[in-house]
Structures are given as C-alpha cells and as structure tokens.
Design brief:
The chain contains 18 helices and 15 strands. By secondary structure, the chain is of the alpha/beta class. A 7-stranded mixed sheet has the order 11-10-9-12-13-15-14, with helices on both faces. It has a 4-stranded antiparallel sheet with strand order 1-2-4-3, with no helix packed on it. Strand 10 (312-317), helix 13 (320-330) and strand 11 (337-341) form a beta-alpha-beta unit.
Length: 463
C-alpha cells in the first residue's frame, strides 16, 4: 500500500558524542573521540556485564577495527520499537524505575546517567531495557548535583502528573519531546493542587523561583562538596526522592467502559466464549506464529493465548485503561506481550525532524507480523471510524505476512446495532457477502466457525 511507504529512518543526531543507525542486523552506534575511550572503559567493567545479563542494559559489541577513527558498537535490535506516546501509565512507571535504579547502581560504582528521558528505554514484552549506552558517563566524585534531574522531571514526572491530576493525555508526549516546563503545569493547577506534593516541589517552587534559577543555572555544574561519600549519598537521595514522587503521581488502575469488557460482555454465552477460545487456540496451533499483532486486545485474553503458543505479541487497543490493566496483569508473568495504546484507524504517525526520527506505527509493522488477530474489531472500523471494507481488508493484508484470525460481526448483532445509531439505511452495503468478497481478494479461508450468537470466526491465510 502506498501510504505505508516511508523514507529510511534518520540516524540519531542529537547527541554530540555519537549517533545510532538502525539496520536489519542490529543498531549500529558510532562514537566520536574522546567519548569512545570512556565508553570502552565502562563496557570493560563487571557492572556493565551484570546489567546486560540482567536484561536492564542493551548489549554492545565492538565492530570497528582498532585503527578506525570512530568507534562503532553493534547492539542487538529490540524486536519491536515503541515510544512513550504509545505507553500506558504502567509502562511509564517501569521506564522510570529502570532509569532511576540504573542510575543509582551506576552512582555506587563511580558512574551515572547524563540523560534521563523515556526515549532511552525500549520494551521487550513489559521488560524495560535501557538502550542508550552513551548516556553513561564517569561521575565527578565531588559533584552532588545530578544534572539530568531537570530532564527527568520534564519528561517523566510532569507528563505523569499532568495526566493523573489534569487529565492531559500521555499521548501528547508525541509533540513534547522535551516534556513540560513547570510553568506549563503551574498555570493550570488549582491552588490546592499547587500545594500538594509532588507538585509543590516539582511545579510550584520551580515556577515561583524561575528567574532566580535562570541566574544560577550556570553555577550548578561547578558546585561540589569536599567529601566524595557525601556527594554520592546526596545523589542517591535525589534519585530515591524522584522514584517516590513518580510512584505518587502514577495513578492506580482506573476502570473504563472497555477495561471490564471481558467480564461484563453479555452478547456471548459461556458456550460461545468457550468455542471462540477453542477456535483461536486451534488457529494459533495451526499457524505456529512467531510474531502476532492483536488488534483490539482489550485486557489480553487472546494475546495470552498467542503468547502461550510461543509467539511474541504486540497488543494494541484504543482504551488506555484496558491496556494499563493488561500491563498490570502481565507483571511477573514472563510472557512476551507488549501492550500499547494505538488506534488502528488513527495510528501513531511518524514524528521528529523531517518526520523521520520516530517511525510511524504502520511502518514499524510492515513485514514484522506473520499473524494478525482482529477479534470483535471489524464493525468498529466500519461503523465508528467509517473505513470502507475493501480498505480494511487491504490494511490487514499489509499487516500480516501469513495469517489473519478475524471475527465477523453481522448487522443483526446488538453491538453492531449500537454503533449504527439509527444510520442503518446508509450501511445496508455492509453484509457478510461484501466482507467475504473484500477479504477474499487477499486471503483464502483455512477454517471457520459459526457461533450461536450469529458471529463467525475465520482463520484466513494470505494468497
């Protein structure tokens, strides 16, 4: 499909120390002198080996010859790249935990993080991985100030505070790469909200003292204490305080119209539920997928089936609370499922410089998934989003390299009728025949099952 064609991603260029280029066999990081000497010294330490072994830091392999002017490292690619504007609160908190705890461990060993942004973190399932090794630098023993403190507040703490207390969407981080300034949030908070921690420390006081801070900003880096152990303890206390603040502003799971859907759905009998699960289980066993995209995952009932079948799963839904609940349910499970808040009808666009720094969701999907599941989703695309049937079928074909497991919801279905909203006369063209004709252009039927409630489960394979 023409709309999926994108320019190659730009190598990263914002870090003066080097850049990263994504290739099929890995992420290649070029490091300029004199930063190359320091990063090689770090990678030779036991802590670097330990962090990689724990899955907290991306592995690094030196690939440039010793005589080369520029050091080149190769990192293994994290299978599917996601961005903060697609994360539920639970993933934001996990990324913050990783950043602060990693920095604390580094401080103990004489190092620290010079950068603290969610963009330094990727996820394998719900396991966060710190991928920017150039953010690690040697710590000045007498320096008690963490210079990345402000960046962490702007890019981690304030977006979550604005989400939990003001209702600002986390997806807005797409256009706020450098986060929020305290003044952005201060002007909108009530007086009570301004005095409530952590807003008092992170928003109100910085906003009130903004002019003084600007005059003193240049002297922060030169502040030092004589006792290096005291400097270390101050740094560790700073990091622990930020971790506590992040916990306070990350909301507990909230219910929504869809987050309890699996338990409250009345348009399936227990018998139909069991038959649907059995059909999907058998289709997955037949497909033997390696990578599955579950569109409209809700709280992940079928994502879990795909993971149990041995697949790596990317689960997407438009409902942030359902996605967040799935994140919480996966904690400690070891399942390779990454839940993301993505609307397939309005997928994440490309962003950044020349729209090439951060790839669109569809371009990241192209060629990646051998199986796509779209269960109880099609009627939403057709009616709520008014996407023509043939365009949905074409998109499905572009998203999967082999298999599609889809659920047809007939016009007589109560959920179909809810979405019609009295517009039945203009949607008479949406029929099962039209569905089969549109999808038949791209797929052949492997298996199907008619449920008692009138819905039909189909396992399709690309022609």
């Amino acid at each position: 499909m023409a709309e999926l064609l994108t320019l190659p991603a730009l190598p990263t260029f914002r870090d003066p120390a080097g850049s990263v280029e994504i290739r099929p066999d890995g992420a290649y990081r070029s490091i300029r002198p004199p930063f190359d000497t320091e990063i090689l010294a770090f990678l030779a330490l036991p802590i670097a080996t330990d962090l990689v072994g724990q899955g907290r830091l991306v592995a690094s392999e030196v690939v440039s010859p010793a005589s080369a002017e520029t050091l080149v490292l190769r990192h293994p690619r994290v299978s599917f790249q996601s961005f903060p504007w697609e994360w539920a609160p639970g993933l934001w908190l996990e990324a913050a935990y990783l950043t602060l705890n990693l920095c604390s461990d580094l401080v103990q060993q004489g190092w620290l993080l010079k950068d603290a942004t969610p963009l330094n973190v990727l996820f394998q399932g719900t396991q966060p991985i710190f991928v920017d090794v150039l953010s690690i630098e040697r710590r000045e023993p007498h320096q008690p100030i963490w210079l990345a403190y402000g960046q962490f507040v702007r890019t981690f703490l304030l977006p979550m505070l604005a989400y939990s207390r003001l209702g600002w969407p986390l997806q807005a981080s797409l256009t706020r790469r450098d986060g929020y300034e305290p003044e952005d949030v201060y002007s909108v908070l009530s007086w009570h909200g301004r005095l409530r921690q952590p807003a008092l420390s992170a928003v109100t006081l910085p906003s009130m003292l903004a002019n003084i801070k600007k005059m003193q900003a240049g002297s922060l880096a030169s502040r030092s204490v004589e006792d290096p152990d005291l400097a270390k303890q101050i740094l560790l206390k700073t990091l622990a305080g930020l971790l506590s603040q992040m916990r306070k502003v990350t909301p507990a799971h909230r219910s929504s119209a869809w987050s309890d859907y699996a338990e409250t759905a009345t348009h399936y009998s227990d018998h139909d539920h069991a038959r649907k699960r059995s059909f999907v289980t058998n289709a997955l066993a037949n497909a033997q997928p390696m990578r599955v995209l579950d569109v409209g995952c809700n709280i992940g009932v079928y994502s879990n089936l795909a993971a149990d079948a041995g697949a790596e799963v990317i689960s997407i839904d438009t409902d942030l609370q359902a996605v967040d609940r799935l994140c919480a349910n996966l904690k400690g499970s070891g399942k390779n499922i990454l839940p993301l808040c993505v609307d397939l009808a309005h997928p994440t666009p490309a962003a950044g410089w020349e729209n090439r720094e951060y790839a669109s969701f569809l371009s990241r999907c192209t060629g990646h998934f051998d199986t796509v599941m779209m269960l109880a989703v099609l009627h939403h695309l057709l009616l709520r989003n008014q996407i023509p049937m043939d365009r949905v079928a074409a998109l499905c074909s572009s998203l999967t390299t082999r298999h599609l497991i889809v659920e047809w919801v007939p016009p007589t279905d109560p959920k179909f009728q809810e979405l019609l909203r009295g517009r039945g006369a203009i949607y008479t063209h949406i029929t099962e025949t039209a569905f089969r004709d549109a999808f038949g252009e791209y797929f052949a039927t492997v298996d199907e099952l008619a449920l008692v409630n009138g819905r039909t489960m189909l396992h399709l394979q690309k022609k």
